[in-house]
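Loading example: each entry is read as six labelled lines plus one structure line.
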Amino acid sequence: MPGPVFLAGDRVTLRPAERDDVDFLLENRNDPAVRAGRTAKYPSGRDDVETFLGGTMGRNDQSIGLLVCVDERPVGYVLINRERMGDSEYDRGELAYWIAPDESGNGYATEASRVLLDHSFDGIGLHKVVARAFESNDGSQRVVEKLGFTREGTFRDEAYVDGAWEDYYRYGLLREEWRERRSE
Amino acid sequence: MPGPVFLAGDRVTLRPAERDDVDFLLENRNDPAVRAGRTAKYPSGRDDVETFLGGTMGRNDQSIGLLVCVDERPVGYVLINRERMGDSEYDRGELAYWIAPDESGNGYATEASRVLLDHSFDGIGLHKVVARAFESNDGSQRVVEKLGFTREGTFRDEAYVDGAWEDYYRYGLLREEWRERRSE
Amino acid sequence: MPGPVFLAGDRVTLRPAERDDVDFLLENRNDPAVRAGRTAKYPSGRDDVETFLGGTMGRNDQSIGLLVCVDERPVGYVLINRERMGDSEYDRGELAYWIAPDESGNGYATEASRVLLDHSFDGIGLHKVVARAFESNDGSQRVVEKLGFTREGTFRDEAYVDGAWEDYYRYGLLREEWRERRSE
Amino acid sequence: MPGPVFLAGDRVTLRPAERDDVDFLLENRNDPAVRAGRTAKYPSGRDDVETFLGGTMGRNDQSIGLLVCVDERPVGYVLINRERMGDSEYDRGELAYWIAPDESGNGYATEASRVLLDHSFDGIGLHKVVARAFESNDGSQRVVEKLGFTREGTFRDEAYVDGAWEDYYRYGLLREEWRERRSE
Amino acid sequence: MPGPVFLAGDRVTLRPAERDDVDFLLENRNDPAVRAGRTAKYPSGRDDVETFLGGTMGRNDQSIGLLVCVDERPVGYVLINRERMGDSEYDRGELAYWIAPDESGNGYATEASRVLLDHSFDGIGLHKVVARAFESNDGSQRVVEKLGFTREGTFRDEAYVDGAWEDYYRYGLLREEWRERRSE
Amino acid sequence: MPGPVFLAGDRVTLRPAERDDVDFLLENRNDPAVRAGRTAKYPSGRDDVETFLGGTMGRNDQSIGLLVCVDERPVGYVLINRERMGDSEYDRGELAYWIAPDESGNGYATEASRVLLDHSFDGIGLHKVVARAFESNDGSQRVVEKLGFTREGTFRDEAYVDGAWEDYYRYGLLREEWRERRSE
């Protein structure tokens, strides 16, 4: 039996990952296609994946991490990371996601992100959500641009991909922008 | 086999939640309809739910939290929270509850609260029980008003709900008021 | 298979509670009829009940707590509590017990107490055993009086029961009294 | 040498309490006149006072607690308490303060609160600050009313003072209210 | 410099014991004359005495223990012990005290107890305070009787004193009794 | 006696902070003028400052934090922060610094940063160093621009300063850029 739904969109539902989802998480986090978008360089073991169980990203109870499901079948993972660094607590989170390779191309990342952004702005009350996409990752850029994010910078040489340094883009979306866009 | 009954009303029984109740607790704590009344913004994982097992709300052995059951079937949760804050220990507790969406509308919240209030005033000897209800939550206001609570204040802008600040009402019920009402 | 017998009477045997007895302990400790005699105000969870496993009452290795059994079937619990208070350690213990509601009225409490008193005076060498009974609890008073306890005081307003302060009686039984009585 | 100033008003400076301030904190926290405003029922020892050293109220690194000084001489203590309770994180804090009896009547509580409110609203960005004052504590009511707080409720029988139950008032001040008032 | 005063009577002041008071506490707790009233059988070391520093009796933050002082000179110790035992939390405490031998006979125990009883009933709101006195300890009986305590029982053979078992008396004083007496 | 020098420039030396430097660190970290550049919202206590003792920024042994000294007199602090975020560890660090108000305007921040950048690129072998400056902080922007950093983005609304959201600039400096500049 799948766990309880926390948020729902038209096609996708978002729910806390449970122990039964560990195989799905492990397989996809280690998959080269999924890792490419995250430039994940190290393998995930079962222990690493436990951070992703339960809905609040390990001990960080202000982040939210949810399994993306379609017809109760897990297809990916979406999260708002709110790690507090030093003195700052500026009502901000970072959006990230991955979709299993054989489920990609269906718009699930966009829909799941939209649902989680609604919750982040209207439920939690965040002022801003940021995101990153590697310069080479057109798919990820399309997703954040479709969601209404503005590109705020180009970080030169911050990823080492396929034997060379690569830039990534940094995006930002303010609460008021999200609301205007939604009301159009 | 369901766990032992701690308190009983006409239709409902209240018993400590056990490990077998975790699925029920998880599903309902994450359900958007149940969360709305509590404005719960973060998902509950299995670990979070363990706080609710055993009848005394985690390590806080002066609080009481019990599963509400009808015909041995769990339908909700009711609790008297007695977190001590600072110097105060004024014989006071806060009533809270939730009912599973497909069991709501049957008066179970009112009956379960009544049973736990009897125990709180006559068994434990509390001097006062308080409660909160969001301004938009008519159902919850009706329950506490039916129980005889007096509205003692309106807290402006203390909840962020559906993208806007909302007020909530604060209620109080004194032991003598409870007794008079019961004896009528 | 029930655990090993520690003490035996004509009908009852006393043995350390084991993990398989947790359901019995839980159900009865939470039962309103059993709680009435103890004025237990808070629910017991599985963790709370672990204190009662093993025969020596949690970490207190000078107390003794044993399951009362009839034909290997658990029917209640009896204990000699020797919590040390401050400087005093006057070779004294406090007797307490409860019997499951559907097993009460058969004299099991009296017989189990008698067996444990024999052990306390002759086995451990206690000088005195004390006991308490609420003024409203005739059954418990009959048990301790049948065992030969002397009422030594009336403690006014020391229990809050059913919404009012109630007195309780304090009893004492000296080793020499126990021995005389037994030899009669 | 006194510790470093964190915030400054016209006459008062606010700085983290240090080990050398323990005697001042102890003496005043135990003083019956200071305790009356807080209805503090238990004595403070040196260990208790350590919570108040360092500026962030023990382990709670989102609260702020500062010594109020005049001409580098400590005269009181002011704090914004931001204990998170349950699911709520509504950008809110509670203001509290005390002034040493021989320094009272000079408006130090009002000025210190004003400085800390400026920091809470403009520096930290809180949405609301709340406060409590016992019905019998005219001085404290005057301070919060002078600061622009609105009375949002009367909590009946929530303090036990001098042998009788007493009400206290609950106040709230929104960021926008603070700004309007300041700009007048 | 002596520590801060927590409660004050006509002649005596009560304040939390501090590290500088350890010698006074050690000397008197070990003094045979002081021990006689408490039947203290074991020596106190410096570590044992730390329990008595700070005003709240070790980690038990609902008990109160204070040094009795006359003209800032320590002359004894008075306490309300509120150790919770099992399920009971009946708004009750136990009064105890000792006075240094060369300061006894001046009524300090009575005055210090009176001040602490006022605080226990009117400040904390206890329903009852109990006390014990050995049958042989006329002085201690006179103090509690002068304070208005009622003898509620005689506990046979509960102290072993000078080579023989001795009884002690148990006393009780209800809040309403204290108030009536005071108003006479 | 000041501790051993770790890195040296023409006028400044950089050395690990020691216990004797706690007063200097405390006073400046709490100083409103120093805090303005860091938008530090919470006070620093002595315990917080211990993170800055020893040269490697608390438990993070890949970061470097050093006291900036002139003639053995501490004038500020400079650090390369290498907190790892998620999977990334791209040979990158973030430069930060502060100078005591009465020592500012002498170019110490620039010189200390230059010395630490030399060590970061040539000693540690970092590929890139990043930095941030609030839009309102002209002084800090001048320092990083003088050092050769390129502005890579403008982060909208990521700081809450003096009651309003403010942008900050994000800068980057690659190892090859640093070397070219130095060889000019």
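The longest helix of chain D spans residues 108-124.
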